[in-house]
Design brief:
Layout: E1 4-8, E2 11-14, E3 22-25, E4 31-36, E5 46-52, E6 61-63, E7 67-74, E8 76-81, E9 84-89, E10 93-96, E11 102-105, E12 112-119, H1 124-136, H2 144-153, E13 156-158
Length: about 160
Amino acid sequence: MGEHDGEAADGPVIIRGPGEGARLAGSGGTPTVVKLHGEEVGGAYSFLEMEVAPGPGARPHIHRRADEAFYVIDGELTLVLEDREVRASAGSFVLVPRGTRHTFRNLTSAPAKAVFILSPPGFERFFEELAARRAVAPGGQVSPEALVEIGRKYDTEFL
């Protein structure tokens, strides 16, 4: 499959097959594939796919300028939105408005898979910068302070 297949009236038709896209590790090392960067669609949104292993999950955070949508493809994620806990099984959709403190984790014994859509885009670049820093960090680990610093660059506050 190609990156761009044809041209629509408002831009390229983009097709990414299974496993295609920028493969990175999320903030906790979660396998993440950036399927679509925001600039590919005129800054409308970004689209990411994550495989979330059982365990503690993402550090609580707030996206200051982006709404984030979660769609669970397989398994189950537990999201905490401010003080509300939501169990999202396969087929569930959760929209987290900008400014909402949230986190997600997989409390089951099997991996979960989900897609994440951020609008406006930009946070996908956080994962790219984090991967670059991990590549040169001792043991491949970045400090919590570095995570906070990188997050600020992409309008995200890690708590």
